[in-house]
């Protein structure tokens, strides 16, 4: 049942990305490029999509999710909520956020829409996904190397 709900949730999310235009890199870049405001060509429609999503989720979070988390009740189809447990801002977070923002700003695509765009078999979508997977692998490899170096410092 849990996998079926996950599949249906993913399909709903993907359909929402397609209908809203968030899977279209040109539309996303039209929103992110504020210089288009001067020309009268800026597209604010994605801001409405994001505000609507927040307007739907915020009451659900405040009325359902947050009280269940506070009372240590798990979600309906799992034993616990999987939320980040770190609350401090550190170097890896800043670098990761900067890379994400640069990639989104240059290409107009982020991981969710990238998965949706795989169905088109567009070479750019495939290349983006390959680069994203490679980047995640290299990031974890670098984290392991840093952790190993901190455990066993090299003497000069």
Automatic annotation (TrEMBL):
One Pfam annotation reads: DUF6691
- UniProt keyword list: Membrane, Transmembrane, Transmembrane helix
Q: Where are the transmembrane segments?
A: 47-65, 93-118, 124-142
Q: Which domain of life is it from?
A: Bacteria
Give the matching InterPro entries: DUF6691
Query: What is the official name of this protein in its record?
Result: YeeE/YedE family protein
According to its UniProt entry, this protein's organism is Shewanella insulae
